[in-house]
Design brief:
Helix content: under 10%
Oligomer: single chain
Number of helices: 1
Mean pLDDT: 93
Radius of gyration: 14 Å
Order of helices and strands: EEEEEEEEEH
Number of domains: 1
Strand content: over 45%
Largest sheet: 4 strands, antiparallel
Structural class: mainly beta
Strand order of the largest sheet: 4-7-8-9
Amino acid sequence: MYKTLQVRNDYDPDAPVFFPVFEKTLDPQGKVIASRALDDNDQAQTWTVPASRLYLHTRTDDASRSKAYLIEGDVCEVLEQQENWLLIRYPSRKGPLERWVSLDEAYGQTRP
């Protein structure tokens, strides 16, 4: 296994948040087995839920919405960002929960 840094250069000024640096852990075959956003001090980047209720998704699409949700003020570790979707890890009572959240939904934005 080895680790590498991925610097994203697909900055979108219209995006509500942008995480530019991700640490990727790869297996011996080069497959990504873990990912997390890093801050300027190489620490895990967190994100605080801004919406009163933010539904969790199993994939990066609206149709995969589950009944589970986070509430305003919940703090999550950011694992990945794909366009306006974040893969987050949340420390639930049943153990760490990894799911996708929609930044459009989080910030009350609608897509064209």
